[in-house]
Specification:
The protein has about 200 residues and is mainly alpha-helical. The chain has one domain (about 1-90, about 95-200). Helix content is about 80%, strand content about 5%. The protein is built from eight helices and two strands, in the order αββααααααα. Strands 1-2 form a two-stranded antiparallel sheet. Strand 1 (about 10) and strand 2 (about 15-20) form a beta hairpin. Helix 5 runs antiparallel to helix 6 (about 130-145) and helix 6 (about 130-145) packs antiparallel against helix 7 (about 155-170). The longest helix is centred in the last third of the chain and has 29 residues, at about 175-200.
């Protein structure tokens, strides 16, 4: 089953693209579209995509990003529950962070980056410990903000997606590279949509 998943679906710029990467990418796109629309089903696609990307990243020795997918699945389950609970009780509204909260969020991301980078550098054979750690740390920040329906989650994802685009190109995961370019563009779309909703909620 695993061998079939890693079999070649097609070649992209003369590099083989596996079936597992193709399916994970499609699920990831569905996740973003549902999230922009504030539809809770986006969390289901996030869980499925993360499960597949765990296998892809581990196979590529991107251990930080692989283990991140496990955390993503747990956070996605929490986010899904949070959004559904909000729908049943008091709706969870799209809001913005205060200036102090933004600073605290940035500092938390930097601390996570330092801790994750040190772990990857000292306990794995990855060739890109700090690069891998950056996307890992700020993805956790983005996922937390997304679960809380904070507008700033899209800025976190924009930074992560730009950094990850280079990382996955380095690893010749070309379909995922293209996917993260699309993710970066959709981060701007999501930010604009949620910013309008936050102003509507404030009114």
């Amino acid at each position: 089953m695993i061998d079939a998943a890693f079999s070649v679906a097609f070649a992209l710029w003369d590099y083989p693209t596996t079936w597992i990467e193709l399916i994970a990418a499609l699920l990831g796109l569905l996740m973003v579209f549902f999230t922009i629309a504030e539809q809770h089903w986006g969390w289901l696609f996030a869980i499925l995509s993360s499960a597949l990307y765990f296998l892809i990243f581990w196979n590529s020795r991107l251990y930080g990003d692989a283990l991140l997918q496990v955390l993503f699945m747990a956070l996605a389950a929490w986010g899904w529950w949070l959004w559904l609970q909000g729908a049943k009780e008091m709706p969870l509204r799209v809001t913005q962070l205060t200036s102090r909260q933004r600073l605290a969020t940035l500092l938390a991301g930097l601390v996570l980056w330092g801790l994750t980078g040190s772990l990857l550098l000292n306990f794995t054979d990855t060739d890109v410990p700090w690069w891998d750690a950056f996307s890992t740390a700020f993805s956790l920040v983005g996922q937390y903000l997304l679960a809380r329906k904070r507008v700033e989650n899209w800025w976190a994802w924009l930074v992560v997606n730009v950094a990850a685009t280079g990382l996955f190109a380095w690893k010749a995961l070309w379909l995922t590279t293209v996917l993260y370019i699309v993710f970066a563009l959709l981060s701007v779309v999501g930010w604009r949509a949620w910013l309008r909703r936050s102003h509507g909620a404030a009114a």
